[in-house]
Amino acid sequence: MKRAFFKALVKLNNLVMPSLYKKDPMKLSTIQKGVLGFRYWALTNSMK
Fold this sequence. Notes:
Layout: H1 2-16, H2 30-47
């Protein structure tokens, strides 16, 4: 059930949140770093 929740969260992230994969992480603002971290956290939990 936990994995299904995170898979749904990742799909929602892909639709709603901006894609930051082409940007340099060192040049991102604090909010963009937070978004990137949240997306990474949700993705890694959906794969466990």
